[in-house]
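Title: [Solved] Crp/Fnr family transcriptional regulator 3D structure

Original question kept below for reference.
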Amino acid sequence: MTSTFRPDVSSSPCMLGERNPDIIQQEPAPQSMALLNGLSRVFGIRLNDKQDTPDTRFLGDLTRLFYLQRVDAEAQMEKHDTPWANVYLIQYGIMRLFREAPSGKVAVHHFFTEGDMVWPVFGRSRTVRNTLCLTTVTPATVWVADFAAFRAAIQAHGEGLWPQFAMALTEELAELTSMREFRKHTMSAKERYQLLLEEYPELVKRVPDNQLASWLGVVPATFSRLKTGAKKY
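Solution (posted by the thread starter after getting help):
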């Protein structure tokens, strides 16, 4: 089907460059609103117009701790043998959590994407015995805060708030890790690859194959064969 362009019936967006008085110009939302919305999702708090409630004061105290950072792909955010310093709220991009053996072999444990909050879940990672590394996979825009200050701010708003928050993410990561280990022992590489395509289509599009191979528990050559085989069907 073909169409003919007619200026007399063009839609209003075509007049944006003319500053037409009939078009309402909307100011873009400030970056701080993206942070506020992200924190409200993480903590399960519904935003409203009321300014002086325990929830709004809580979110306000947290937002003051964060600053915006834009980083390139493969930027090292946290490294092993160093106490994990910060908490991250991802506005855009992907990060990977992994361990690296002295031999250079890498084991990818988890990928974090837009809207995820990343922080040192395990007590050991907050010490010099930390074995976890955190690196960006893609260029990323992240909100960053000092972890100790972040935890203290949550604790200041209620004795049970920190354990409640910490337990939710700890359980989620533990469940995902145990399920992935179970699949490694009970499913073939082909079956695991098929589940990867079904459950994480965005990661398949945006994450390099060698990193997906490590996460899946196969060598890059095997991953390449699985990818080639899947395209035949």
